[in-house]
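B., you asked whether I could sanity-check this one before it goes into the benchmark set. Here's the sequence:
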Amino acid sequence: MPSDTLALTLPIRRLVEFLLRTGSLDSRFTGFDRANEGARLHRRLQRTAVKTYTDYRAEVSLIQQYACSGIEYTLEGRADGIFTDRDGTPTIDEIKTTTLPPEKITGEQAPEHWAQAQCYAAIYAAQQGLSAMRVRLTYYQVDEELEFHFSRDYSADALRDIVVDLLTRYAPWAKRAAQWRQNRQQSLAQLQFPFSEYRTGQRAMIGAVYETCRDGGQLFCQAPTGIGKTMSVLFPALKALGEGGPVFYLTARGTTRAAAETALDLLRRSDPELSLRSVTLTAKDKICLQPVRECTPEACPYADGYYDRIKDALWQALDTPALTTDALQTLAREHRVCPFELGLDLSLWCDVVVGDYNYLFDPVVHLMRFFETRGDYLFLIDEAHNLPARAREMHSASLCKSAFLDARKKLGKGKSSLKTALQRVNELFIEWRHRCEELPADNRFGRTFFETARAETLDRALTRLCEPLQTWLDEHREPGETHDALLQLYFDVRAWLRVADTFDDHFVLQVSAHGSEVRATMLCLDPSAFLAADFAKGRAAVLFSATLAPAGYYKDLCGLPDARAVALRSPFPTQHLGLWCARQVSTRYKDRESSIALVSDLLYTMTQGRAGNYLAFFPSYSYLQKVWEDFSTRYTDIPTLCQQSEMDEAQREDFLAQFTAVPGKTLLGFAVLGGVFSEGVDLTGERLIGVAVVGPGLPQVGARQEQLREHFEQTRGSGFDYAYRFPGMNKVLQAAGRVIRTPLDKGVVLLIDDRFLSPDTRRLMPPHWGHLRPVSSIEELRGELQRFWNI
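And here's what the prediction gave me:
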């Protein structure tokens, strides 16, 4: 290939949809889960075709190079079927499922469908030396279960001309993409670390990340706060990117997405010649430009005609290196397109994609445009200690009896197949309620029982419910109370059935009754197999956090037993952190009432060591409230803040805004351990000088937590560690990490509970906590604080 020739690999479906798709966005009910149901129907039609055409081959991979307009294209795709028709003509079969009314299925409604099949036919004809091919479109109308076939014959030359025409039309975009990639590689090769020197441990972390991203595999990196984790993973990942990509920077919360944006901005400012385009994917509800989100062409001007305007928006957007939420909204307003869909479409043109975990790991909302097959992707997983719990949620599902009963009532009087199907499901829940009521009075967790097998009787009833529910939703598309309730029920049922298809010994079924309500949940206890499959979709993954100990626990639950693990020491002077354990206190549930006054006294003593801002973290809201009331009554000279059980984003921001660096003033905040203020909060310098952690953070004993304990006791021999001790200590370390955020910070951490001194807990503490000192009285703590602050 000449050195001045630009090269580009392009999926055929992406090519034709980009050039030929027109019309509007419309998220109204379409009758089926397009991804899963469409794939199932494809397989069914392919099995039928095999019976008709003995040489029918399904899912045939095709790849071919074309030189056009100074670009060396590599076109790739997968034909649904290739067979010899009855008259001996070799034929490409392209299968599409649709909910269009039968009268609108003319074969002319979607030119991109013909173009996709024509590209497959052109490649197959060229590779097989054929002079002619037939292209057949097979449409399956899902509501009425009808098949429609449309066929056209082409010479090999005509098919080649069609492909060349498409590639010529795409050439301006291809040149821009290929030139950008070329410039990106050159500029990344020259990119320098944006700081004059490395922090302690940072060079080692960068080296480990670079090797993993370059060579492939997975790395767990425990790096303390202050080492510069975000830059320490982004910089080496970009240096190792090569011809692949993009880099996916995936986070558990919005605050860490902002940190990634800041790091990318710093790289651009450090090298104005850097060619690096990034996009931040934001939840649809948060980025929507409408007062009420309703993604239909009638209700939303940004959805109406979206595909007719999107190319102009994309062309302009490619001039914006940092496609943040604000940038996407500005572009969306100017071109009258949906900002959420604009971000998704732009992700295909970006080098870095920043977003939530669910874009890779959630089986419902993951980015199908990337993750249908394996790619040369790099995954950077921020705050990775959150991933196992989030993955459990993604692969679990719940249903409530009341949803089915309410849906039946909303349909009004009269009989129907839908009401009959709803009643059948309701009756099954009633049977479960009776079973709960028959449980022994001394049952450990009340009216709750567990099963290790899936609920096959319920699953069959739910499957039978889907058809009349789909029919009703097809016939009643206007939003309203009844429509919205039945639509949500449909989604919940489909989610349940999706999880049911994966139910195995990593799951348990829980059924609980509360009054007349019955709730059934399929709990994913161990998500490791799902996560392993997701990580296999990329070249490399780096999972990093300040708290990833013990490494074997996280490697196990994330499905990466062979991953490399490194743990870096804190870069800050040990003497900057005062660390004590109040050994005279037990915060065990049975001792909490008697501990309230003593905990208050310890908190007051901590705040008297030096005026400033402090946070105290508690294992529950009820315990927090009792200590706060006692403290506020007896120590009226100390202003306090108290976290509420439900706080919106504005209230959370207002809470943190109170922690200002005002010399000589003291503030004590009461918050819940493991809550929104115990991680991802960056209060540097004088904004926070002390943290108290009340109790070792063990999750509350309950039915679900005990199922986790039993499962991991049977499968790992470490039930208590996996269900209680490891996640509890992680919460403690995250909360304590709110203190000492920079090399200049100085602060204290007070651990309140004798269990912190047990060997099993001490072994989970990081190396820079080696100077933990026990105290046995208020007087001893007061003396320790005086010595610390006077140093």
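One thing to flag: Residues 156-190 form the longest helix (35 residues). Otherwise nothing jumped out at me.
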